[in-house]
Inverse folding.
């Protein structure tokens, strides 16, 4: 049986459960790699959502603080600092809270995304090296046909 040309690979020493189709190995390795990458990526949507939404939550708090400041101006009939300051302070705290949450979330998202992409690249490389090694081993252990000896 031609092991390499037919796309079939046997165990390391040519002994075992018999030949395994190279395509089966590739699909299995791909499936296993994809399941691990999916597990690694499972928290990325949370980080992405947090990084995208929290500035808007901060902005909402800012708008509410400014509305409160204008309400106080209307109630007191004057635009004194004592009337405006509490609403502006509330607005600034909301903005800071939104940014304080969003910035680390975006940094973490990008950090983990790069790590996952690098892991995917390494998995692909290891899989290709393994399959090449198995093919090379299979071709070296190919039995010599009976009539071809010396």
């Amino acid at each position: 049986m031609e092991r390499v040309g037919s796309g079939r690979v046997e165990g390391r020493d040519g002994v075992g459960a018999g030949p395994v189709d190279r395509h089966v190995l590739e699909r299995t390795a791909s499936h296993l790699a994809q399941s691990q990458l999916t597990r690694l990526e499972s928290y990325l949507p949370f980080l992405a959502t947090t990084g995208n939404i929290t500035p808007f939550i901060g902005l909402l708090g800012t708008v509410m603080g400014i509305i409160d400041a204008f309400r106080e101006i209307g109630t007191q009939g004057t635009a004194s600092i004592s009337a405006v300051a509490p609403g502006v302070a509330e607005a600034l705290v909301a903005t800071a809270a939104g940014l304080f949450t969003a910035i680390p979330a975006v940094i973490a998202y990008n950090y983990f995304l790069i790590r996952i992409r690098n892991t995917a690249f390494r998995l692909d490389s290891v899989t290709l090296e393994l399959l090449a090694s198995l093919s090379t081993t299979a071709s070296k252990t190919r039995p010599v046909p009976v009539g071809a000896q010396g």
